[in-house]
Amino acid sequence: MAEREPVVGVLALQGDVEEHLAALRRAGADARAVKTREQLDALDGLVIPGGESTTVMKLLQRFGMDAPIIDRVQSGMPLWGTCMGMIVAARDVADIRQPTLGVLDVTVRRNAFGRQNESVEIDLDVPALGPGAFPAVFIRAPWIERIGDEVELLASRDGHGVMVRQANVLATSFHPELTGDSRVHAYFLSMVERARAARKKIGKRSTAA
Amino acid sequence: MEQTGTDKVKRGLAQMLKGGVIMDVVTPEHAVIAQEAGAVSVMALERIPADIRAMGGVARMSSLELIQAIMDAVTIPVMAKVRIGHFAEAQVLQSIGIDYIDESEVLTPADDKYHVEKHAFTTPFVCGARDLGEALRRIGEGAAMIRSKGEAGSGNIVEAVRHMRAIGDSIRELSVAPKEELMARARELGAPFELVAQVAREGRLPVVLFCAGGVSTPADAALMMQLGAEGIFVGSGIFKSKDPRKFAKAIVDATTHYEDPKVVAEACRSLGMQEAMPGLDVRKLPESEMLSSRGN
Questions:
Q1: Which domains does chain A have, with CATH numbers?
Q2: Confidence check on the interface: ipTM exceeds 0.90, yes or no
Q3: Contacts of B123 in chain A (CB under 8 A)
Q4: Three-class SS state of B23
Q5: How far apart are CA A191 and CA A185, in angstroms?
Q6: Which of A4, A51, B155, B294 could covalently link to B279 via disulfide, CB atoms 3.0 to 4.6 Å apart?
Q7: For A189-203, what is each residue's pLDDT tens digit?
Q8: Which chain A residue has the Cα nearest residue B100?
Q9: CB contact under 8 A, B18 and A51
Q10: Paired strand residues for B138
Q11: What gap in Å lies between CA B12 and CA B16, rounded to an integer?
């Protein structure tokens, strides 16, 4: 029997949702916009897109989606945050009192590379994606200021972390969804596939017992 | 390669604002209230459109001191307005590091023939449009975001609906038009052929489309989102209301969950007996007082 495609949600409270949905579909996912708590249940993975972190964090709290997302991520569901998503996932935000989900052990600095006039397209080296620079689009982007012991640094720009992974949580301060290069989406889908396989194994074991 | 001010990063910021509400604010305190309510960006200006309308006279770019104070007060992107065609005002705003420039019909036009050549700027521009031709002319000049014009400061949604429907209808017509018609269509629209062909192919504008001009209730916001807006500008509605905090939050909630009438109803209910700003009958406005007919 053919495996079903992995179901990946894109948090659709605000931000560049369509761009992620399209890129995920190109990479082979069953991608869905997610706006409610109930829609979280069906997901194998979740993307928090680019957008405004203050807005989305308020909406997550207002509509009671923050705790369920934290639960799912702590029980192994892969999560990828881009730009705003990285801020929302982080444990702390430097110099600003701002609530976050706190599932990624880093401190981020918002708008660290500057305001819009400093937004930039750069060729970025990301060894985990194989040879060939990645066309990274930074828009009022954050950087990672403190990185936890369990967190792997995957890419830096001018000495500041811009792509990290901690087990099932991936974060980029740039926007792969704005480019035609789907390598980061494919990388995230491989995380989703591995998490599914692991879950299936556990499922089988418990049925056998 | 390292490039700032590309189409991708200019249009990209507008893409990050999608699904959100951009609020007009006239003080840093307003800006903080807007951010707390969940605004994705604020438009810094000296007077909201309803007051510009009431006061008359020439409306210009706001004082830099005010704009800077608002930029310092919030972490979300800040926009500010320049007069149509006033590229020197735009150069000034770019130099202080504003995130988006609105070349706006709400201010008194500086040039009655030409708009700013916007490709020359690193800072992205948003411009108003009443129909697809106007939208594509502005994009041709370099606009990285379009807002339907509506009739600012009127408290009346009818013009916003007219403009959003006009843009949507023309896009739908183009997307089924045979290829051989596209050049003639471009001529009718008064728009660059390449952009017309792109809209025909993709079935959408090449940049983000927000709605502006007349949104004054949560239901107005939900209406415009269902008509195809990708986000909402609210000008006079919020800070002309009795309780701006509640009002701002209600508009944000209704914009996020525009397709869920229960959430929109809850947003309306949260305002209690509070009335929205008084509205104007735009049919009774003399042509000289219509803001949307400024610019072409």
A1: 7-208 (3.40.50.880)
A2: yes
A3: 116-117
A4: strand
A5: 10
A6: B155
A7: 999 999 999 888 877
A8: A116
A9: yes
A10: none
A11: 6
